[in-house]
Amino acid sequence: MAGLASDTPHPVDITLHQASRLLCVAFDDGARFELPCEYLRVYSPSAEVRGHGGGPMQTVAGKSRVNIVAIEPVGHYAVKLVFDDGHDSGLYGWDLLYSLGRDQAALWQDYLHRLAALGLARDIEVSKS
């Protein structure tokens, strides 16, 4: 299971800052990451995002204002993040949280490029009727 490798750094502090929409994670190797809720949502380890049955990763748009409303521990290896858009099916293992922090700049740029290529936006436009 993800997050159980003996060489995987383990979090020593996980703090949600809802006002700034940041999840701050400090690891036992000294690494500390500030992960935006939007970033965590669009890189969710859920089948909805990662693809069903090994399918291609989905590009999730319109999540710039998403926030985390709950963090639920899962054993000693992961947390389940509950987002205010109702998404709650991904388990974020320690190894995944660490790699999302370590590779944040490259992954974020990849996400922005995929959005642009598909003609999608980070914000959902609200139609006025």
Helix-strand layout with pairing:
Elements: E1 11-17, E2 22-27, E3 32-36, H1 37-42, H2 47-50, E4 68-74, E5 78-83, E6 91-93, H3 94-102, H4 104-118
Antiparallel strand pairs: 1-2, 2-3, 4-5, 5-6
Description:
This protein has a 3-stranded antiparallel sheet. It is globular, with a radius of gyration of 15 Å. It starts with 10 loop residues before the first strand and ends in an 11-residue tail after the last helix. The protein has one domain: NE0471 N-terminal domain-like. By secondary structure, the protein is of the alpha+beta class. The longest helix has 15 residues, at 104-118. It is built from 4 helices and 6 strands.
Cα(first) to Cα(last) distance is 48 Å
Structural class: alpha+beta
Number of DSSP strand runs:
6
Let me know the average pLDDT.
91
What are the segments in which pLDDT stays under 50 over at least 5 consecutive residues? none
* Main β-sheet description: 3 strands, antiparallel
CATH topology description? NE0471 N-terminal domain-like
Which CATH top level class fits?
Answer: Alpha Beta
Which percent band covers the strand fraction? 25-35%
The number of distinct helices, counting runs of at least 4 residues, comes to 4
* General form: globular
Question: Going across the major beta sheet, what is the strand order?
Answer: 1-2-3
Q: Indicate how many domains the architecture comprises.
A: 1
What is the architecture at the second tier of CATH?
A: 2-Layer Sandwich
Compute the gyration radius: what is it?
A: 15 Å
Question: What's the order of the H and E elements?
Answer: EEEHHEEEHH
Q: What percentage of residues falls in helices of 4 or more residues?
A: 25-40%
